[in-house]
Amino acid sequence: METNNHGARPYSCRQPSVLKPLSELRAPVDWMSIALRAPQLLTAPRGDGRPVMLLPGLMASDLSMRPLGAYLSFLGYTARQWGLGFNQGKVSRDVDRFGARVRAFSHARGGAPVTLIGWSLGGVIARESARLQSDIIREVITLGTPIIGGPKYTSVGGFYARTQGIDMDRFEQMVHERNALGLTQPVTSIYSKNDGIVDWRASVDVYNDHARNIEVNASHFGLGLSAQVWREIAKTLAASKAHK
Q1: Whole-number Cα distances in Å, 123 to 44, 76, 139, 168
Q2: Residue 119 to residue 56: CA distance in whole angstroms
Q3: What pLDDT does residue 11 have?
Q4: Per-residue confidence in pLDDT tens, the chain, 244 aa
Q5: What domains, with CATH codes, occur in the chain?
Q6: How far apart are the first and last CA of the chain?
Q7: Residue 192, beta-bridge partner list
Q8: Hey, which residues does 244 pair with through a beta bridge?
Q9: 20 to 30 Å CA-CA from 60: which of 114, 119, 143, 219?
């Protein structure tokens, strides 16, 4: 199901309940859907060779995004991983480091703007990179990304607050101020109400009137390896190709 933000109001986000992470037990079902729905995936719209970079979630590496990258390459896109090892949650540092890599990738492709696809925290880095380098970022697609509140409305929010002394209310305000600057590129947020890590309401982009919010049925750890999500990504890329 897809929604846009015409006249939208922010949802009342909340931290996931202590039982919500149990939703992640369904992740293997999401992973198996790739094989079960292979015929549908193989008939998705073909790509146009545009450069695409994939960004993993917190404490994940390129390995987590390789299956999606292989699928996008099969469709005809020029897919690359972020190449920065494990995502350690150091957003400011990684935005700078990733910025250099995406600019080099764009240059290698003759200056073609790059589409970014980020899973969870990788989507935060993708959105911030797009804000800072709008000249080389064509489009942003996020998967289960905590757009609202940063870590506040995630299952690890309380842990971060206790162990690192983070004032979550202040952090949320800082994130809000960054988001309020808006994005000029096409932006799509894919979220699931079965997400056991990030409150789904926090993954809905209410800041950009042109944003597309697409609901899917998957766990948080299954979003990047879900046939339904892959199909939505393929459709989104094909639509932006048609409106180039």
Answers
A1: 23, 23, 12, 20
A2: 5
A3: 65
A4: 666 554 344 568 998 999 999 999 999 999 999 999 999 999 999 999 999 999 999 999 999 999 999 999 999 999 999 999 999 989 999 999 999 999 999 999 999 999 999 999 999 999 999 999 999 999 999 999 999 999 999 998 888 788 878 899 999 999 999 999 999 999 999 999 999 999 999 999 999 999 999 999 999 999 999 999 999 999 999 997 655 5
A5: 19-242 (3.40.50.1820)
A6: 24
A7: 216
A8: none
A9: 114
CB atoms within 10 A of CB 111: 10
Q: What is the pLDDT of residue 9?
A: 45
Looking at the DSSP bridge assignments, the partners of residue 3 are 213
Cβ neighbours of residue 199 under 8 Å, at least 6 residues apart?
13, 14, 15, 16, 146, 153, 154
Q: Residues 6 or more apart from 144 whose CB is under 8 A from it?
A: 57, 119, 120, 123, 190, 191, 192, 195, 197, 198, 203, 220, 223
Q: What angle do CA 154, 140, 233 make, to 5 degrees?
A: 90
CB 120 within 8 A of CB 57: yes
Angle at 110 between CA 49 and CA 190, to 5 degrees: 45
Single out the residue of 166, 54, 216 nearest to residue 120, CA to CA: 54
Handedness of CA 181, 59, 93, 85 (dihedral sign): negative
